[in-house]
Design goal:
- Among the domains are: about 120 residues, Cobalt-precorrin-4 Transmethylase, domain 1 (3-Layer(aba) Sandwich), CATH 3.40.1010; about 70 residues, Helix Hairpins; about 45 residues, no CATH class.
- Helices cover about 60% and strands about 5% of the residues.
- The protein contains 18 helices and five strands.
- The protein has a five-stranded parallel β-sheet, sandwiched between helices.
- The longest helix is centred in the last third of the chain and has 25 residues.
Length: about 400
């Protein structure tokens, strides 16, 4: 078993400000090295049953600042026993040497866990001017507060502690679609709330990775910002573009130079397989079109659709169920291509069609119920008549 090194935030230095989660983590290990901790804080931690190891690090200040020599010397001195490393404040914001330490421990084969503490100083939030009034008894919070809330949830809530990247996936997908619903409903209030729920998923996944010493939300922000700047030289550099087509061309060329592109064998690689079928099909068609694999005019797509419908009808007459399924897929794929050629988002159009059917069918149910009848009791002609009415009353 590889040794476990638990890096624990001790808060600003006051024993009263050490979080319960940090105390629990220290007690679970049973022995700790404290970095630059005031004497009264060390005595308090000892009173909690934790053995404080002194003189394990010659120069704690150099260690905290990220001295490679100090960190490598410490890592080389480790044995197979678990050890807690107490850091003033929150290790994610108040321990500059943390990335070097995590890499050195990883090379040495040690396991690491990070336990956040109360930061020594709260950094200014990216946005400090909320536009939406809060309900009574609510408070304003910053980006840093949100990260701290998530860290404390992981330490203090049994449900949050049990979650993994895999177990959170259904919630990530659900929250994404709830954002879509809010946008399509043109509800700013719902959109604000649902974007928050989606942001929680991003912060949650980042916290899980932070606890394993893999990456933090700061790495996510850095990676995203660097990617956007790198892929938009016409905004952040001196490159000039004259059209959206040129933007896409540059985007594809820049993506091809990135490490992730080196392992891809097709231009179509990288499109998530978990996307809705219509959306994935349209994205593949977009990428193919960028290299010229496309009909030059709309008439070509319309002719292809007629061809696919004829092939479907032939398969149906032949009674070949497998061929029918395949040809239905081809018809749908070509309809997606037609939508793309017309500048229509096929996935969005299908969602709107679903909602339109829902409105009209629900109207039919309510109308029949108001007359004391059920749709099951109506003839096909009566259902058609009711449907035509629904088209005018529940458009």
């Amino acid at each position: 078993m590889r040794p476990l090194i638990r890096v624990v935030g001790l808060g600003p230095g006051d024993p009263d400000l050490v979080t319960l989660g940090s105390l629990e983590a220290l007690r679970a290990v049973g022995r700790a090295v404290l970095l630059l901790a005031p004497p009264e804080l060390g005595l308090f931690i000892e009173s909690e049953g934790v053995v404080v190891l002194r003189d394990r690090i010659a120069d704690a200040a150099l260690f905290v600042r990220g001295s490679s020599e100090a960190i490598e010397t410490f890592v080389a001195s480790l044995d197979d026993a678990e050890l807690a490393l107490g850091v003033l404040g929150n290790p994610l914001s108040d321990f500059p040497g943390l990335p070097l330490l995590l890499r050195a421990l990883d090379r040495a084969g040690a396991r690491t866990e990070l336990v956040p503490g109360m930061p020594r100083a709260t950094l200014s939030a990216a946005i400090e001017m909320p536009l939406v009034p809060l309900p009574p008894a609510s408070a304003h919070y910053t980006w840093n507060d949100l990260i701290e809330v998530m860290a404390r949830l992981r330490r203090g809530c049994p449900w949050d502690r049990e979650q993994t990247h895999e177990s959170l996936l259904p919630y990530l997908i659900e929250e994404t679609y709830e954002v879509v619903d809010a946008v399509e409903a043109h509800s700013d209030g719902d959109l604000c709330e649902e974007l928050g729920d989606l942001l929680l998923q991003i912060v949650f996944h980042s916290q899980l990775a932070t606890e394993r010493g893999k990456f933090s939300i700061a790495d996510v922000v850095d990676a995203l910002s660097n990617k956007m700047i790198r892929r938009h030289p016409h905004v952040f550099g001196d490159q000039a573009v004259s059209s959206v087509a040129e933007v896409w061309q540059n985007w594809d060329q820049l993506k091809a130079l990135e490490p992730a592109a080196k392992t891809r064998t097709s231009r179509l690689d990288g499109i998530p397989k978990g996307l809705g079928a219509l959306q994935r099909g349209q994205k593949m068609q977009d990428k193919a079109a960028r290299v010229g694999f496309d009909w030059p005019q709309l008439d070509g797509v319309r002719a292809k659709l007629a061809e696919e419908v004829a092939e479907l009808e032939h398969a149906r007459r032949e009674g070949d169920a497998r061929a029918v399924r395949e040809e239905v897929g081809d018809v749908i794929f070509t309809v997606v291509n037609l939508a793309r050629a017309l500048g229509v988002d096929a996935e969005g159009a299908m969602r709107e069609a679903n909602e339109k059917f829902y409105r009209r069918f629900s109207y039919m149910e309510r109308r029949a119920q108001s007359e004391g009848r059920s749709l099951n009791d109506l003839s096909l002609d009566e259902l058609e008549e009711l449907w035509q009415l629904a088209k005018t009353q529940a458009a």
